[in-house]
Amino acid sequence: MEYDVVIVGAGPAGLACAGIAAGGGMKVLVLERKPFPGPKVCAGGITWSGLINRVPGCLEERRFSRQYVRTPLQQVCISAGNPIVATVNREKLGSYMTSKAVSAGATVISPAVVRSIGEESVRYCGKEDGKEFKVRYRFLVGADGSASLVRRSLQLPTRHCGIGINCQISGGLEKMEWHLAPSLFGNGYAWIFPHRETTSIGAYADASVMKAGDLQHGLKSWVANRGLSLAGARQRAELINFDYRGWKFGRVFLAGDAAGLASGLTGEGIFPAIVSGEAIARYLLDPACDLSDLNRLIRIQQRHRRIVLFTGRRRFLLPVFSEAAALALRLGLLDFSNFEMSH
């Protein structure tokens, strides 16, 4: 079987790419290793300047026009006329984007485990029957996350990663909170992201600054001090790749976390995934297309990466950095949008 585009991974990047490429007349195949697209370790936050107005309201869980930033010494409330951040359910988002891609003409196979990647073909098999298939491609898109098989096939190293730990507890809390506590989270943070019937609680940090076990210990300590309970909640961890080294490699392309386009500063990944997936599809349809949105995203991602690497090399100053950032937010010297990938 031959396809114009084979996409490995049915996350936001892969499905965004599939929908536009198929809608433009290309024959598109999407291979997803999970039983169905969508689920991922993720707080589920989308920003006003990024995705809120591009995602149907039915997919939103909650909208927040106030953000609370807390440090050991300060509490800052940032408010705006428009919602700053909304929360979405990743499974519902995956289902919605899959439907759009399929309606545009793409074929989505799930589960499908990629066994090997060649210069012109991909071999995969279904988890249920184990039967192997070979498909040929004109273009290959790796949208298969931080542990991307497509990236590894290009022999691209991944040296800069973040760690995210997330769990969903019952009950929707009222405030969306960001907690900077260097002794617990290094140059990262803990979060409280309320959804409709549950609340996402978790922590994120640069993996070169904090090991997963230390981050988990910090999260447990912080949760206990906040009077929250994770009893019965499943804790899940995932690496977040922010080691960007390019998106185009001949006939092979990388999008989203596979390209290392997540924010090293916040771990934000949904917006970079969709922007990069859409841009790659437009490029495949017309190499002379406007890529200004992708180039802008890359510039912001690189700025976030430099901040993370700078603070990571100066860990003894992390308490100063966190308090200075909170103070600048409180005084209006720093806008909250500076932490967004869509800024």
Tally of helical runs: 9
The H/E string reads EHEEEEEEHEEEEHEEHEEHEEEHHHH
Proportion of residues in β-strands: 25-35%
Instruction: Pick out the low-confidence regions.
Output: none
Mean pLDDT: 91
Largest sheet: 8 strands, mixed
Shape call? globular
For the secondary structure, the number of strands is 18
Compute the CA-based radius of gyration: 20 Å
Report the end-to-end length measured between terminal Cα atoms: 42 Å
Describe the 3D structure.
Strands 1, 2, 8, 9, 10, 11, 17 and 18 form an eight-stranded mixed β-sheet that branches. It is built from nine helices and 18 strands. It is globular. A hairpin with a 6-residue loop joins strand 10 and strand 11. By secondary structure, the protein is of the alpha/beta class. Helix 1 runs parallel beside helix 7.
